[in-house]
Design brief:
338 residues, alpha/beta, 7-stranded mixed sheet, 6-stranded parallel sheet, 15 strands, globular
Length: 338
């Protein structure tokens, strides 16, 4: 039997047992080592908001739902037409679920390079979200960059902007502990967006305003604050998936007059087969992530907050709903009592 984390109803996660799916000709079965919680997406699905995977606002809230799209594991079975991987290979699993055994199309798994830990590998797909957002903003070396919101994507953006040569990097979040951590990850400054002088502080350290903004709050107020601190001709990547339209922005003064560019940065908004300047495929971004890790240009181990057995899922997801400073969490499937 398989063990799977399922959002069985609004605000409720359970670990359930179900039969393991049969492996098709072009599929592989992977026994997971780690699967990473993508806090924003999974919280939205857990509390009954937008189903991100479908990319549409449902007419009614439907459960059960599943999540867990970035994981690592070992191939335990392959379909007869599979050529990319073999039994025993350690792989990244993309767009799967928090399942003990993931049965998935071979094109959604990637071999993990030697020297890359299974825990670091389980961040790979999630890392490509801020990576693509940065690319879409056409960041150049020495340009100032601001990250609005320091959840897992925002923290990854800090690290990736550092690797990309942004300066200075300004990290923004209302939670003091997150701001302090961002400074250890490579941010040059960290500010509270609730500070009445927030925009002026950003302009002071960036010589007039941030050139690039990675907006990860998913809140109208966060975007509005970001625009106040943006430079003329600044670029904003909308990575945070703002799910509500109940806010107002002074588009004339904050966008139109300043020549600001908005870029839709949902990870599905990318080329499928061939990369070009600023627009890379998912596969190429995954390769880049592994390369940065292998080359020592990127460190992810210090991003980890907590490891949990999948049996802890009910308590972990209750915390996700309620905690403002929810840590980075991976499920360690080796801790599972089968």
């Amino acid at each position: 039997m398989n063990k799977c984390i399922v959002f069985t109803e609004k605000d409720k996660a359970e670990l359930i047992s179900e039969p393991v799916k049969a492996v098709g000709d072009n599929e592989v079965a992977v026994r997971l080592h780690y699967s990473t919680i993508s806090a924003g997406t999974e919280r939205a699905n857990l509390i009954g908001e937008l189903n991100i995977a479908a990319g549409v606002i449902p007419k009614s809230v439907v459960f059960p739902r599943r999540a867990g799209y970035s994981a690592s594991g070992t191939v335990i079975e392959t379909g007869k037409k599979v050529t990319r991987v073999a039994v025993g290979d350690k792989v990244l699993v993309t767009w799967g679920n928090h399942n003990m055994i993931s049965v998935i199309d071979e094109n959604k798994v990637y071999k993990i390079p030697e020297g890359v830990s299974m825990s670091d590998a389980a961040f790979a797909l999630i890392s490509t979200f801020p990576m693509a957002a940065i690319r879409k903003c056409n960041l150049e070396m020495g340009e100032s960059a601001m990250i609005m919101g320091l959840g897992i994507l925002g923290m990854m953006a800090v690290k990736l902007l550092r690797a990309a040569g942004a300066y200075p990097i300004v990290a923004v979040d209302p939670v003091p502990e997150k701001r302090e951590k961002a400074l250890t990850f490579g941010a040059d400054y960290a500010f509270d967006p609730r500070d009445p002088d927030f925009a002026e502080k950003v302009k002071e350290v960036t010589d007039g305003g941030a050139k690039v903004c990675i907006e990860v709050t998913g809140l109208g107020a966060g975007l509005d604050n970001a625009l106040d601190a943006l430079a003329r001709f600044g670029r904003v990547a909308l990575l945070g998936c703002t799910r509500h339209s109940d806010f107002t922005i002074d588009y004339y003064n904050k966008v139109h007059a300043k020549g600001v560019t908005f870029v839709g940065a949902h990870t599905m908004a990318r080329p499928k087969y061939e990369s070009s300047e600023g627009w890379w495929t998912e596969a190429d971004d995954i390769k880049a992530y592994f390369g940065l890790l292998s080359g020592g240009r990127l460190v992810m181990s210090d991003l980890m907050g907590e490891y949990h057995s999948p049996e802890d899922a009910p308590e972990v997801y209750t915390r996700l709903i309620n905690e403002k400073n929810f840590p980075t969490v991976q499920f360690d499937w080796s801790l599972l009592n089968e």
